[in-house]
Amino acid sequence: MAPSSSKKSKFATSWPATNPSSVAASCPSKTNEKLQRLVAPHVASFDFMIKEGLDLAVASIAPMTIDVGHSSKMNIWIESAQIGYPTSDATNGQARLLLPSECRQRGISYTAPLIVTLARSFVGGSTTEHIQRTVGHIPIMVRSQRCHLANMSPPELVKAREEANEMGGYFICNGNERCVRLLQMPRRHHIMAVRRGAFTKRGDLYSDIGVTMRCVRRDQSAVTLTMHYLHDGNATVRLGVRKQEFMVPAGLLLKALYPLTDREIYDRVVRGDVDNTYLAARMELILRESKRFSVYSRDEALAYLGKHLRLVLPYLSSDMTNVEVGNRFLDDYVFVHIPKGEKGRAQKVELVCLMLRKLYAFAKGDIREDNPDSLMNHELLLPGHVYLMLLKERLQDSLASIKMQIETAKSKPAVVDASYVKKVWERTQNVGHALTYFLNTGNLRTSSGLDLMQIAGYTIVAEKLNYYRYFSHFRSVHRGQFFTTMKTTAVRKLLPDSWGFMCPVHTPDGSPCGLLNHLAVECQLVTSPPYSPDTALDEELKLARFLANLGMIPATGYSDGSFVAPHHYLPVMLNGKLLGAAAPTVCLELESALRYTKASPEASLRRERGVVATLEVCLIMPVVGGPFPGLYLSADAARFTRPVLQRNTDWIEYIGPMEQVFMNIGVLPADIRPSTTHMEIKATNMLSLVASLTPFSEHNQSPRNMYQCQMAKQTMGTPAHSIPFRADNKMYRIQTPQAPIVQNERLREYNLDEYPLGTNAVVAVISYTGFDMEDAMILNKSSYERGFGHASVYKQIQVDIAPKENSTTKSYFGNVKPGSNDDEVFSAKLDRDGFPYVGQHVEYGDPIACHIDQTSGKETFVKHKETEPAVIDQINLVGNNPSMCTKASIKLRFVRNPIIGDKFSSRHGQKGVLSILWPQADMPFSESGMSPDIIINPHAFPSRMTIGMLVESMAAKAGALRGKYMDATPFQFSEEHRAIDVFGKYLKKAGYNYMGSEPLYSGLTGTVMHADIYMGVVYYQRLRHMVSDKSQVRATGPTNSLTRQPVKGRKKRGGIRFGEMERDALLAHGTSFLLHDRLMNCSDKHIATVCTKCGSLLSTWTQRASVSDAGQSDLAIALHKDRKQWMCATCRTGEACEAVAMPYVFRYLANELAAMNIKMTLALKAW
């Protein structure tokens, strides 16, 4: 019977919230916006690609002119490209919706069709013909606008077999969730002064000084332009074209861009600063050098460029003139962020002049080098943007492939009709395969380089080890693969510039330290360019007029006249375009007006002035030896932003990392000074989400907080609620989780207790029994029996019986013998369908599946390969057609209750291993009869200074007594308002010691211990590092066929490497027999035959054996047979041959030396 409409309105059950960090029902009614904001950079950047980016990319792909023979030419171009929605393979003629949960369970990719419309017309013809085709199925980001889960409510997500708070932001490729990692890139549209030794390798006159600018089109494809300073005072511009570098003299570039006289060029750079002879002399040199090319007009300069670049620019038509090629070069490779056209060319000239001014100021020493490692000079490469860049290049390459195929065809058809073009088009590379390869491997296959610094390491698996690790993948930021191999530590240093944008705590220890960082909790990213493509120029003009009204002199392109401002005026830049210039005093007024406008709650005021809420306003005033002065405005995509509070208006203002360096922001009320203009909203905004969850973290030594960030992500917690519908290779799950009594503000905001990580444990700090030395911890055996730390590991086994490529034999799952009665089965341990019962225990070697060959009726068993027993948790038949499933997914559950050697940790980086399960009868107990769950050693505290753990112990004890959750948000206590006073009063009121200590009685003698023992409640985590996964032992086993030494690897039942340092340790102890046993007897002992006459190990051989001694070992022959069995090929006798025990690798060495024509002889002492 169908449920009534009243029941449909409610989902499952509802109850009041007893815990502030979880929701008030089994399923929340609406999505947690804060959780969704964690992955917003990923989802929103992909949505930008769908809504706007793909159309922009298609519009910027140049048409191709193809010579089709018979004296006719054809133009082809891509008219449009659309992305569909994911659908499954059509069954019964009907395609149905494909949901992410189905893709995970079937091990397929979550893809949608990419439909491209190709247009063609013949040169001289008037008609245009369109051809449409699906060029591949491209992966779709979960919860993007092309995903079926977009805009679903939590109850709808649960019905779609997803998490109630599914965030998305990842791709599903072959059933695996893959995430594109955020990478740090040089900041776009900002002129950076850099000093690099590699610049001097460009030529004899090249110095190590240059200025560089990364220019990005609206479709997010980029070109980097570098201006070099030469020792003779000249300047050249370096550009990259399809992974090749080209140098263009600055004077020639200025001539080609705009029709200007030499005097006009000189005035625009020098700007009346006649006292600056350094700049004036070098500008005269540039203008004189440009005469060497015999170029006097704009067309001559364009023709000169076109003539020399014709052979290297891609996708050119053979009938283009040199001037047209020069124009194409200027449009596609020089300041590509500026639109095409005469106004754009005028703006490009202004930009070249500004770069020259900065270059010569840097060379003279007036300004300092910009720090390339500072966050103020960085932005992020977002997943949607890199995906769009790759997609655009693949579409461009498919056009080029069509052209090449038609022009190089041996026999051209008489008529190049639509069907012929479509047939050629179908032979081009599948776009979907290229993008799937990129996501699966993280490797970039590109012909142009895409102006990126690495070709690998772009994607990672979004593991759901636990929920903290999962969402950390989406907030992690990597500096780049190139920097991992650098010997210097400069790139790893924590700079103050990154305050509030990058977390200073959340970075791993070891090789990725400082390179793999995490975004601060309130840091947001701008995911799309400002305004819309149609209104962007009008909005910029609005802003220019607003600033002009306040005293700015507008630049060429934003006014009717030409632009020459006095040299002491500061440039005003917007997104890499020169808006104008203004005096330093006027710039101060401009800055305050822009800050007021962008923070204003009135959207109409911002629209009227062309200001966006995330506009970055960076005013750098002139300082001797400081950075290049100017007012830099940025509203670009891929920037960092974060909210702060304006003190004079109490409005929220979003600021960027570049402007933050030049602002006065207070963190705590005590920081306020007369010059303070802004305040932090919360002191914890500088931390990442994982780092801000550590209770009382300001009381801990900093490295311990770093360790906790790593260990929180290694905890056996609650990875997901939809475990029955997930097919992860390995999942960890704690069976007895609890809500922490001591909670942080962030834990409540993000409802993270929906995915709890640990258990509240009564912890006593005492040196007891000696089993707690060196970070070991004693666990109460009764606590263990009550379920403390009990956990399970889920492993997925895939059984695929589909026929191989060259085979026609089919199999089916079953356990009943063909042709027999229904009661005759192959294995009594399996059900009739060929699978075990759900809940059945399986041991090593037990069958877990059986499939039968349809032709021969022969059965094949899939067996449990692990020595650890398991429980059959779930069995799924996987496929699109229920009647013909050739794939099964078997989920095994391994019981992993704590055993000696398993790793535990508190939330303060205090990790330790379980040393013993101590009977409760022998545990110390308090006056109230309470025994601790865990005993840890007092020596864990003095050197590590984890005072936060001591405070948590008091706070949780007070909370347990009061029946309330205690707040542990950092920075709420101070010397005047101490934590001990707050929680001590609660303890005293409940009748306990003010300091948290208690007298304990010995469990062995029953007498009181003559010391107060610190005892309270601490939230403990069980980590995934278990001795069951790491213990390795071997007597005999597989060996390497070449060296005959044991193979390595626990899975292969290999040995543990006994290296040189271990050998040295045994030598130092004089344990020669042990050394002999390890390095020879248990490794590769070998009985070799050595000729004592010539000392050869390789020339001896064994004569053909008789029937009586055939098959006996070398050792048996050496001990029992006379020496006539042996023969030395060199001495032609076996009398001098002797058996010697040695490691086989010694014989291998002799062979290797012989291959190098080096003879090794042995001298045996006894002979």
UniProtKB/TrEMBL annotation:
Q: Do you know which InterPro entries this protein is assigned to?
A: DNA-dir_RNA_pol_su2 (IPR015712), DNA-dir_RNAP_su2_dom (IPR007120), DNA-dir_RNAP_su2_hyb_sf (IPR037033), RNA_pol_bsu_CS (IPR007121), RNA_pol_bsu_protrusion (IPR007644), RNA_pol_Rpb2_2 (IPR007642), RNA_pol_Rpb2_2_sf (IPR037034), RNA_pol_Rpb2_3 (IPR007645)
Please list the residue ranges annotated as the DNA-directed RNA polymerase subunit 2 hybrid-binding domain. 690-1052
GO MF annotations in UniProt? DNA binding; DNA-directed RNA polymerase activity; ribonucleoside binding; zinc ion binding
**Which top class of enzyme applies to this chain?**
transferase
Q: Where is this region: Disordered?
A: 1-27
RNA polymerase Rpb2 domain segment(s)? 200-380, 461-524, 1054-1164
**Pfam families listed in its UniProt record:** RNA_pol_Rpa2_4 (PF06883), RNA_pol_Rpb2_1 (PF04563), RNA_pol_Rpb2_2 (PF04561), RNA_pol_Rpb2_3 (PF04565), RNA_pol_Rpb2_6 (PF00562), RNA_pol_Rpb2_7 (PF04560)
Q: Where, subcellularly, is it found? A: Nucleus, Nucleolus
- The RNA polymerase beta subunit protrusion domain sits at 38-416
Q: Which Enzyme Commission numbers does its entry carry?
A: 2.7.7.6
Q: Which Gene3D superfamilies match?
A: 2.40.50.150, 3.90.1100.10, DNA-directed RNA polymerase, subunit 2, domain 6, RNA polymerase alpha subunit dimerisation domain, RNA polymerase Rpb2, domain 2
Q: Work out whether the entry's keyword set contains Zinc.
A: yes
> Domain DNA-directed RNA polymerase I subunit RPA2: where?
579-642
- Catalytic activity annotation: RNA(n) + a ribonucleoside 5'-triphosphate = RNA(n+1) + diphosphate
**Example GO biological process:** DNA-templated transcription
Name a single GO cellular component.
Answer: nucleolus
Q: Which UniProt keywords apply?
A: DNA-directed RNA polymerase, Metal-binding, Nucleotidyltransferase, Nucleus, Transcription, Transferase, Zinc, Zinc-finger
Reported function: DNA-dependent RNA polymerase catalyzes the transcription of DNA into RNA using the four ribonucleoside triphosphates as substrates. Second largest core component of RNA polymerase I which synthesizes ribosomal RNA precursors. Proposed to contribute to the polymerase catalytic activity and forms the polymerase active center together with the largest subunit. Pol I is composed of mobile elements and RPA2 is part of the core element with the central large cleft and probably a clamp element that moves to open and close the cleft.
Q: Report the family membership.
A: Belongs to the RNA polymerase beta chain family.
- PANTHER family cross-referenced by the UniProt entry: DNA-DIRECTED RNA POLYMERASE I SUBUNIT 2
The protein, known as: DNA-directed RNA polymerase subunit beta
> What species is this protein from?
Aphanomyces euteiches
